Amino acid sequence: MLKFQSFVLVLTSFILGFSEFIIVGILNNIATDFHISVATVGLLVTIFAIIYAIATPLVSMSVGHHRLYWSYLVLMLIFAASNLLTALANNYFLLIAGRILTAVVSGTLVSVSITFVSFLAPLTKRAGIVAWIFSGFSIASVFGVPMGTWLSNYTSWRYVFIIISILAVITLLLAMFCLPYDLRQQHVNSFFKQLSIFLDHQIQLGILLPLLNLAGIYVFYTYLRPIFSQGMGFNNNALTFLLFVYGFMSLVGNLYSGRIAANHGLKTMPIVFLVQFMLLGSLSFAISNRILGLTVVMLLGVSMYLLNSPSAMFYLKVAEEKYPQSLVLASSFNSIFANFGIALGSGIGSLLYVKTGLAGIGPGGAIFAFLAMLVNFWLNQLRKRQKLQKKTAG
Length: 394
Hints:
Helix content is about 85%, strand content about 0%. It is mainly α. The protein has a single domain (about 1-394), classed as Growth Hormone, Chain: A (Up-down Bundle), CATH 1.20.1250.20. It starts with a helix and ends with a helix. The relative contact order is 0.15. The mean pLDDT is about 90. One of its GO terms (molecular function) is transmembrane transporter activity. InterPro entries: MFS, MFS_dom, MFS_Efflux_Transporters, MFS_trans_sf. It is a multi-pass membrane protein. This is Mfs family major facilitator transporter. Keywords: Cell membrane, Membrane, Transmembrane, Transmembrane helix, Transport.
């Protein structure tokens, strides 16, 4: 049963990732349909991420001690309806409304899925299953975004969101029959007591990592299509294949993040951020050569989600040990602060694209990767010091 339950939770993240990431592949099609600029459509990424990041902690805390089962079903139903609204939008403002409603529920769906894992899976299997849940987003990049882009190019981008709605309903029906009915986190006497986890110094540093990681990546990822077409000169026929390869590379990184989490965890990540810094710093001149440019972009794809499982397991461990009333909220930290990073990165990426074209995108992202490396090193030192103090006191 655990395998089928895990499949449903991974399918959930796939659909969420499909809905979130497809905008990158269909920017031009939406811009043409609504007679607006590509940069204006690019702001949908920023708006989605901001709403996602703000709404997720509020909705996650609202789950409280309610059954995870019913929380999941209600959120998935809203998600299906919001994507249908996006598909039927006849003006840009309705399109924004559909994306906002999708963003409101997406983050909490991720956190509820991860919370299910903490109850259902033995400790030895948690990191692997959490890695697969995050890999659902990468699978969406591998298969969903390229296929959605192809469908959008040859029919209409609206069909993509109709398909997402249908998949959401199918997933909801599967979840009804396989997820346990009576699970819930520890009883919460006060809605705001869940926020006490933010007073933890380790958490304060830890939540900066997904923010800085995705800020650096999304400075360039938001404009991945122009990088391939304008920067490297690939045509539309090649774009689908290149998006597929990029998604596959991010999937490899996502799955490997489970291995990192099961072994050295966050201790390994400063090295990853250093490599990411070097890759982003070299992007501007690398894209002038197709082979070099593709190598840099694909390696960035691998690095994109290496943080996912180590950070998620770190948040869960701190919550289980000190803040059990905040388990669902802690499960949402990766999604919340990653999307703050997406909003920041895509916003700065849009500004750099307008002001400098593709030239400023790589260096802009590199700054965030360097900051992530410094914060990660600081956190590792703090954890080492607190562990030593605890051992001495014991």
